[in-house]
Amino acid sequence: MGTKVQAQVWLGAGEFALREFDLPSPGRGETVVEVDLATVCGSDVHTVRGRRPGPHPSVLGHEAVGRIAALGDGVVDHAGAPLSIGDRVVWSVTAVCGDCDRCRRGHSAKCRRLLKTGHEPLTGPWPLSGGYASHILLHPGLTLVRVPDVVPDASAAMSACALATVMACVEAAGELTDRRVVISGLGMLGLCACAVAAARGAIVEARDPDPQRRTLARRFGAARAVPPDAADPDPAADVLIELSGAPDAVTTAPRLVDIGGRVVLAGSVAPRGTVPVDPEHLVRSLITVVGVHNYEPRHLAEAVAFLAAPTGYDFAAVVAEPADLADLGDQMIETGGAVLRRAVRPGRRG
């Protein structure tokens, strides 16, 4: 292992600078991971494009996979087993205290002392928090999950945000066997949701304006894929999982579910204004609306287990060929069609 870290530092707006830092020595509960691949989550694109706030200068990147290069004392995986140098791992977006009232209630994603991977300022106590770097220092309170070698890097990396969040969404949706489920929005989260819901026995209808993504949805478990303005499903859905964040889709969601149905909102993570709500329809139709943001440690472990199972879903196929770390700025653009994630491969340094 070399003695330097190369990282892309986000300076604000669309500006990045490739900089070099001393490789940190991990303290108690900390881990240094050499990053093999990082995928570019849409939320990072929104941050760089000014659609959501973010501290800068900072090292972005919260979807990544790598191998442990150095360990502090007391580091264990999600199941409490000790980790070793060379273990291939992914890690959670959230570093939590585990002791506050929210953590104790099972809402650790909203910990009162929350820190977030790839969201911390370079001038703060956790400067090397992001995956767009040759190495990342993992903070105490992060969840680490071992990744089997059968899982490709591109699939493993996105599990730390997209797939783990979907696991939280399907848990919020309840029992899915033989349920009629609408997935609204077919980015990476939507595609993951189609696959997981179908694997759990749901009858899936996918909705998105992009015809290429509708075709992908059918490959990833959807029985039907239609534009967002298609006629209401008949019969109506038992569950709708909204992942686009589009105001029209959020407004329409309660109309598409049956009596006693459930609407899970997870795509509205950037300011896009308010939407009208018909409370009488919610009340008379016994509709439950629940929000999901980030996930709990168990959801990351479930995501990796899903990828390691023989489902036949090739998520790596919808990730672009990785670029060099030096070209990260060029990857901060909206994806389209059959490309759901861009990626960078920092490569081995030193």
From TrEMBL:
Q: What is its EC number?
A: 1.1.1.1
This protein's UniProt keywords? Metal-binding, NAD, Oxidoreductase, Zinc
Among its keywords, does the record have Kinase?
no
Going by the entry's taxonomy, the superkingdom of the source organism is recorded as Bacteria
Alcohol dehydrogenase-like N-terminal domain location: 27-149
- Keyword Flavoprotein, does the record have it? no
Q: Where is the Alcohol dehydrogenase-like C-terminal domain?
A: 189-308
Of the GO CC terms on this record, one is: cytoplasm
**The protein's required cofactors:** Zn(2+)
For molecular function, the Gene Ontology terms on record are: alcohol dehydrogenase (NAD+) activity; zinc ion binding
Query: Which family does the record claim for this protein?
Result: Belongs to the zinc-containing alcohol dehydrogenase family.
PANTHER family (alphabetical): ALCOHOL DEHYDROGENASE 1-RELATED (PTHR42940)
**What name goes with this protein?**
alcohol dehydrogenase
Name of the encoding gene:
camD
